[in-house]
Amino acid sequence: MISDENKDLNTLVKDLLQKVNGFQRECQYRKDVDDTDTDLHRADVKEKRLLVNGLVPQQETVIVAFSATLNHHVTLGTHQAIQYDNVITNIGHAYDTRHGNFIVLFKGLYLISVTAYNYPGFNVFLELVRNNLVIASMYSYGSGGAQSGLTETLILRLEKGDMVWVRGRSSGYKIAGSKSENCNSFSGYSLMKL
Protein backbone atom coordinates (compact mmCIF):
# COMPACT_ATOMS: atom_id res chain seq x y z
CA MET A 1 0.00 0.00 0.00
CA ILE A 2 2.82 2.40 0.81
CA SER A 3 4.40 1.45 -2.46
CA ASP A 4 1.18 2.35 -4.33
CA GLU A 5 0.97 5.64 -2.46
CA ASN A 6 4.62 6.39 -3.38
CA LYS A 7 3.85 5.70 -7.02
CA ASP A 8 0.81 7.97 -6.85
CA LEU A 9 2.85 10.66 -5.10
CA ASN A 10 5.66 10.32 -7.63
CA THR A 11 3.18 10.63 -10.47
CA LEU A 12 1.56 13.62 -8.77
CA VAL A 13 4.97 15.28 -8.22
CA LYS A 14 5.94 14.70 -11.86
CA ASP A 15 2.64 16.21 -13.02
CA LEU A 16 3.13 19.18 -10.70
CA LEU A 17 6.73 19.69 -11.87
CA GLN A 18 5.56 19.64 -15.49
CA LYS A 19 2.88 22.20 -14.66
CA VAL A 20 5.39 24.36 -12.78
CA ASN A 21 7.80 24.19 -15.73
CA GLY A 22 4.92 25.08 -18.04
CA PHE A 23 3.98 28.03 -15.81
CA GLN A 24 7.61 29.17 -15.73
CA ARG A 25 7.80 29.05 -19.52
CA GLU A 26 4.49 30.92 -19.75
CA CYS A 27 5.72 33.55 -17.27
CA GLN A 28 8.97 34.01 -19.21
CA TYR A 29 7.02 34.29 -22.47
CA ARG A 30 4.70 36.91 -20.98
CA LYS A 31 7.66 38.81 -19.55
CA ASP A 32 9.34 38.81 -22.97
CA VAL A 33 6.12 39.98 -24.63
CA ASP A 34 5.60 42.65 -21.96
CA ASP A 35 9.19 43.86 -22.37
CA THR A 36 8.70 44.06 -26.14
CA ASP A 37 5.36 45.83 -25.72
CA THR A 38 6.92 48.22 -23.21
CA ASP A 39 9.78 48.97 -25.61
CA LEU A 40 7.28 49.55 -28.43
CA HIS A 41 5.16 51.71 -26.15
CA ARG A 42 8.22 53.72 -25.08
CA ALA A 43 9.20 54.21 -28.73
CA ASP A 44 5.63 55.28 -29.53
CA VAL A 45 5.54 57.72 -26.62
CA LYS A 46 8.98 59.09 -27.55
CA GLU A 47 7.79 59.61 -31.12
CA LYS A 48 4.74 61.51 -29.93
CA ARG A 49 6.62 63.64 -27.41
CA LEU A 50 7.27 67.16 -28.68
CA LEU A 51 10.11 69.57 -28.07
CA VAL A 52 9.58 72.61 -25.91
CA ASN A 53 8.54 74.81 -28.85
CA GLY A 54 5.85 72.29 -29.75
CA LEU A 55 6.78 72.19 -33.43
CA VAL A 56 9.25 69.40 -34.13
CA PRO A 57 9.05 65.80 -32.85
CA GLN A 58 12.14 64.62 -30.95
CA GLN A 59 12.51 61.53 -33.09
CA GLU A 60 13.55 62.37 -36.63
CA THR A 61 10.64 62.62 -38.99
CA VAL A 62 10.79 60.38 -42.04
CA ILE A 63 8.52 62.46 -44.27
CA VAL A 64 8.27 66.21 -44.57
CA ALA A 65 5.61 67.83 -46.73
CA PHE A 66 4.30 71.37 -46.60
CA SER A 67 2.19 73.72 -48.70
CA ALA A 68 1.31 77.24 -47.67
CA THR A 69 -0.42 80.05 -49.55
CA LEU A 70 -0.88 83.77 -49.15
CA ASN A 71 -4.27 85.03 -47.90
CA HIS A 72 -3.72 88.75 -48.50
CA HIS A 73 -1.95 91.22 -50.83
CA VAL A 74 1.64 92.04 -49.88
CA THR A 75 3.90 94.91 -50.92
CA LEU A 76 7.43 93.65 -50.40
CA GLY A 77 10.48 95.46 -49.05
CA THR A 78 14.04 94.65 -50.10
CA HIS A 79 14.83 91.04 -49.13
CA GLN A 80 11.58 90.79 -47.18
CA ALA A 81 10.57 87.16 -46.59
CA ILE A 82 7.08 86.25 -47.70
CA GLN A 83 5.06 84.85 -44.81
CA TYR A 84 2.64 82.42 -46.41
CA ASP A 85 -0.10 82.45 -43.80
CA ASN A 86 -2.54 79.80 -45.00
CA VAL A 87 -0.98 76.43 -44.19
CA ILE A 88 -2.64 73.67 -46.20
CA THR A 89 -0.23 70.85 -45.30
CA ASN A 90 2.55 70.75 -42.72
CA ILE A 91 3.60 67.14 -42.13
CA GLY A 92 6.62 67.20 -39.85
CA HIS A 93 5.88 70.80 -38.77
CA ALA A 94 8.89 72.06 -40.73
CA TYR A 95 7.20 75.16 -42.20
CA ASP A 96 7.19 78.14 -39.82
CA THR A 97 4.35 80.58 -40.58
CA ARG A 98 5.76 83.22 -38.22
CA HIS A 99 8.85 83.70 -40.39
CA GLY A 100 7.80 82.14 -43.70
CA ASN A 101 10.62 79.64 -43.81
CA PHE A 102 11.07 75.92 -44.16
CA ILE A 103 13.46 74.41 -41.61
CA VAL A 104 15.10 71.20 -42.85
CA LEU A 105 14.63 68.41 -40.28
CA PHE A 106 17.03 65.90 -41.84
CA LYS A 107 19.64 65.72 -44.59
CA GLY A 108 18.05 64.66 -47.85
CA LEU A 109 16.72 65.44 -51.31
CA TYR A 110 13.74 67.80 -51.35
CA LEU A 111 11.38 69.04 -54.02
CA ILE A 112 10.76 72.78 -53.47
CA SER A 113 8.18 74.72 -55.46
CA VAL A 114 7.18 78.39 -55.58
CA THR A 115 4.24 79.83 -57.48
CA ALA A 116 3.49 83.55 -57.57
CA TYR A 117 0.93 85.83 -59.15
CA ASN A 118 1.53 89.56 -59.35
CA TYR A 119 -0.90 92.25 -58.26
CA PRO A 120 -2.42 93.96 -61.38
CA GLY A 121 0.07 96.43 -62.86
CA PHE A 122 2.99 95.42 -60.64
CA ASN A 123 6.06 93.46 -61.68
CA VAL A 124 7.26 90.78 -59.29
CA PHE A 125 10.85 89.77 -58.75
CA LEU A 126 11.28 87.01 -56.16
CA GLU A 127 14.18 84.92 -54.90
CA LEU A 128 14.28 81.43 -53.45
CA VAL A 129 16.86 81.50 -50.67
CA ARG A 130 18.77 78.87 -48.71
CA ASN A 131 20.68 80.15 -45.66
CA ASN A 132 20.94 83.68 -47.17
CA LEU A 133 22.22 82.37 -50.53
CA VAL A 134 19.96 82.86 -53.57
CA ILE A 135 19.14 79.52 -55.20
CA ALA A 136 16.78 80.82 -57.90
CA SER A 137 15.38 84.12 -59.16
CA MET A 138 11.85 84.43 -60.51
CA TYR A 139 10.28 87.28 -62.44
CA SER A 140 6.72 88.10 -63.47
CA TYR A 141 5.85 91.04 -65.75
CA GLY A 142 2.76 93.06 -64.85
CA SER A 143 3.00 96.35 -66.78
CA GLY A 144 -0.09 98.04 -68.15
CA GLY A 145 -2.41 96.54 -65.53
CA ALA A 146 -1.62 93.00 -66.58
CA GLN A 147 -1.38 90.04 -64.27
CA SER A 148 0.89 87.11 -64.84
CA GLY A 149 2.16 84.15 -62.92
CA LEU A 150 5.48 82.50 -62.35
CA THR A 151 6.61 79.18 -60.99
CA GLU A 152 9.87 77.53 -60.02
CA THR A 153 10.36 73.90 -59.01
CA LEU A 154 13.73 72.53 -57.95
CA ILE A 155 15.12 69.35 -56.43
CA LEU A 156 17.64 70.34 -53.77
CA ARG A 157 20.07 68.47 -51.57
CA LEU A 158 19.59 70.07 -48.16
CA GLU A 159 21.33 69.62 -44.82
CA LYS A 160 19.66 69.29 -41.43
CA GLY A 161 19.06 72.78 -40.04
CA ASP A 162 19.08 74.56 -43.41
CA MET A 163 16.47 77.28 -43.82
CA VAL A 164 14.72 77.87 -47.15
CA TRP A 165 12.34 80.75 -47.89
CA VAL A 166 11.00 83.08 -50.58
CA ARG A 167 11.70 86.81 -50.52
CA GLY A 168 11.29 89.94 -52.62
CA ARG A 169 14.43 91.01 -54.45
CA SER A 170 13.90 94.72 -53.87
CA SER A 171 11.17 97.01 -52.55
CA GLY A 172 7.92 97.94 -54.26
CA TYR A 173 6.93 94.56 -55.66
CA LYS A 174 3.36 93.59 -54.90
CA ILE A 175 1.87 90.11 -54.99
CA ALA A 176 -1.78 89.16 -54.87
CA GLY A 177 -3.18 87.03 -52.10
CA SER A 178 -6.59 85.50 -51.74
CA LYS A 179 -8.39 83.34 -49.18
CA SER A 180 -10.20 81.44 -51.93
CA GLU A 181 -7.57 81.27 -54.70
CA ASN A 182 -4.22 79.75 -53.79
CA CYS A 183 -2.31 81.68 -56.46
CA ASN A 184 0.79 82.42 -54.35
CA SER A 185 2.25 79.30 -52.79
CA PHE A 186 5.39 77.80 -51.28
CA SER A 187 5.63 74.00 -51.06
CA GLY A 188 8.16 71.32 -50.30
CA TYR A 189 8.42 67.57 -49.98
CA SER A 190 11.15 65.22 -48.80
CA LEU A 191 12.01 62.82 -51.60
CA MET A 192 14.77 60.85 -49.92
CA LYS A 193 16.67 60.85 -46.64
CA LEU A 194 20.47 60.86 -47.11
Automatic annotation (TrEMBL):
Pfam families found in the cross-reference section: C1q
Keywords, ordered alphabetically:
Secreted
Give the InterPro entries listed for this entry. Answer: C1q_dom, Collagen/C1q_domain, Tumour_necrosis_fac-like_dom
Query: Where in the numbering of this chain does the C1q domain appear?
Result: 59-194
A cellular component annotation (GO) from this entry = collagen trimer
Keyword Secreted attributed:
yes
Instruction: Name residues in a coiled coil.
Output: none
SMART domains for this protein? C1Q
- In terms of domain of life, where is this protein from? Eukaryota
Name its cellular compartments: Secreted
What is the protein named? C1q domain-containing protein
The record lists the organism as Mytilus galloprovincialis
